[in-house]
Write a structure and sequence with these properties.
- The protein is an alpha+beta fold and 523 residues long.
- The protein folds into 2 domains: 2-12 and 49-281, Endonuclease, Chain A (2-Layer Sandwich), CATH 3.30.870.10; 293-522, Endonuclease Chain A (Endonuclease, Chain A), CATH 3.30.870.
- 36% of the residues lie in helices and 21% in strands.
- The chain contains 19 helices and 20 strands.
- It has an 18-stranded mixed beta sheet, sandwiched between helices. The protein has a two-stranded parallel ribbon with strand order 7-14.
- Strand 19 and strand 20 form a beta hairpin.
- Helix 4 (70-83) runs parallel beside helix 5 (99-113), helix 6 (131-138) crosses helix 9 and helix 14 (368-375) packs across helix 19.
Length: 523
């Protein structure tokens, strides 16, 4: 999301129309169809037999376990991979080649060496210059790598953002990790250090959920639809040549040497001592059970007209939204409601529904242009009676320098995409409430029917919001001008700000300038 928004903004400001004749893709004719193993076929695997008594006691229901911190989220994925016996299916928008990316790749290779079939589906947004590494992984007989909506390899990417604006800018934002069609992880995390508490300078506040039971089959069906879609290309037909045996050997050796250096490192120690690792050792992992529905965009959404709503996740989401009676809590790091979203939120508020929204502040966001799109709606949201909060985290240049290399994060940013309805239902997934998620990108998530989880999340919001976020207030002066106030805490003391907290004049000026650009549909 962040890289794409910045590049789209640049391309839109550039305003050029260039010749795109050289930006061609190979004919996508050699794309063998494959599908997930059925849950029946994998019922005798480790993950098929886990918690069998609980499964039998909850027929037709799915089990849930929230992964609330990055360490637990990585531990869960690593454990699923280590126990895989038949298949691992991964679908991600970003898959970084950093510490956690390499640790994950190593887990995939170990599984493949055991005979596990690995299907890795990645959006092409973050893969510039990485075809060799991907093709080395793809060269393993049990691993196949496919790329969603790829860029042409015979011309520069930046020019394609201009020449193919509106097509190459539509991306796969989905995030799922499924093993043996028996267990899956959905949520907001990509594969990268900032999502798993491995980066000392930045940490994303995010949320995933581990699922077992019938809902996993729906996630696998979604993966198959993308894997076999015409907008997905096998990596091996995109690249100019396959890797040589020497290149495969060299890349494999580099990875093994890197992994061997990590065993006694700080991050490995943190993983071993994570909350989830300790609960597993003490046999205290408890799953909750209830109804769950996986909802997702059709992959053909990106090559279809934007008004073909039958392809959109939001159509599956609509019954839950329209069924809200008392309260909705929205966590969306990138929040640009647009005219339709504004009308829907105001309608809820006017009907007596309590609407509360948490998003990033200007200081905490990693995408300033999206914040500019959101900022133009703040006053109208508040005037309608909607409660609006922005993450309270100081990320000044001085603080980043002060904390550089020290324990703790010098930048925190909200990244979770979660909605709580009437303290009965919870949505967890990749969907932001912005035009890009609704109309441009593809997304996935799960709606869980569980008053226990919904109440837990709502109560946690109630308990922490005052200290973790700024509460925005609309102040109307005698001459009718509408001014914003931010109520929050700094160093434990209550503060009221009259401008975006922890930001300088030039950053706020830039925000105002970006807010004038006619690019809301791309945010």
């Amino acid at each position: 999301m962040s890289h794409l928004s910045k590049i789209i903004t640049f391309a839109s400001m550039l305003g050029l129309v260039l010749n795109s004749g050289c930006a061609t893709l190979p004919e996508n004719v050699d794309r063998p169809v494959s599908n997930a193993y059925t849950a029946t076929d994998t019922s005798n695997t480790l993950w098929g037999k886990v918690r069998l008594d609980e499964r039998l006691a909850h027929p037709g229901k799915s089990g849930f376990f929230l992964l609330e911190n990055g360490l637990d989220a990585f531990v869960a994925r690593a454990l699923l991979a280590e126990g895989a016996e038949r298949s691992i299916d991964l679908q991600y928008y970003l898959y970084h080649n950093d510490l956690t990316g390499k640790l994950m790749t190593y887990q995939l290779l170990k599984a493949a060496d055991r005979g596990v079939r690995v299907r890795l589906l990645v959006d092409d947004m973050g893969l510039a210059g990485r075809d060799l590494g991907g093709s080395v992984l793809d060269s393993h007989p049990n691993i196949e790598v496919r790329i969603f909506n790829p860029f042409s390899r015979n011309t520069g990417r930046l020019s394609q953002f201009v020449t193919r604006l509106g097509s190459v800018t539509r991306r796969m934002h989905n995030k799922s990790f499924t093993v043996d069609n028996q267990a899956t992880i959905l949520g907001g995390r990509n594969i990268g250090n900032e999502y798993f508490e491995a980066d000392p300078d930045i940490a994303f506040a995010d949320l995933d959920v581990l699922l077992i039971g019938p809902v996993v089959n729906d996630v696998s069906a979604s993966f198959d639809a993308y894997w076999n879609s015409e907008v997905v290309y096998p990596l091996n037909i995109l690249i100019a040549r396959p890797p040589t045996p020497d290149e495969i050997q060299e890349k494999t050796r580099e990875l093994q040497e890197f992994i061997s250096r990590q065993y006694d490192g700080e991050y490995h120690k943190a993983l071993r001592n994570s909350d989830l690792a300790n609960k597993i050792r003490q046999q205290q992992v408890e799953m909750l059970w209830g109804e769950a529905e996986a909802i997702f965009d059709n992959p053909e959404k990106i090559i279809s007209a934007r008004d073909q709503s039958e392809l959109h996740l939001t159509e599956q989401f609509k019954p839950y939204w329209e069924g809200i009676e008392k309260e909705i809590i929205i966590l969306s790091p990138y929040f640009v409601p647009g005219k339709e979203g504004m009308a829907s939120l105001v309608k809820l508020q006017e009907s007596g529904v309590k609407v509360r929204i948490l998003t990033n502040s200007l200081a905490s966001t990693d995408v300033g242009v999206v914040h500019a799109g959101y900022a133009r709606y703040r006053k109208d949201l508040l005037q309608a009676g909607i409660e609006l909060y922005e993450l309270n985290k100081k990320v000044s240049r001085e603080e980043r320098k002060e904390k550089k290399g020290k324990e703790g994060s010098s930048k925190a940013s909200l990244h979770a995409k979660t909605f709580v309805f009437d303290r009965k239902w919870v949505f967890i997934g990749s969907l932001n409430l912005d035009p890009r998620s609704v109309y441009e990108n593809t997304e996935i998530g799960v709606v869980i029917t569980s008053p226990e989880i919904a109440c837990y999340m709502a109560e946690k919001f109630d308990e922490n919001i005052a200290r973790s976020a700024f509460r925005l207030e609309l102040q109307i002066s005698e001459d009718g001008r509408r001014n914003l106030l931010w109520h929050g805490y700094e160093n434990g003391e209550e503060r009221v700000y009259t401008v975006d907290p922890y930001t300088g004049f030039w950053r706020r000026l830039g925000l105002g300038f970006m807010g004038l650009l006619p690019i809301e549909s791309q945010l």
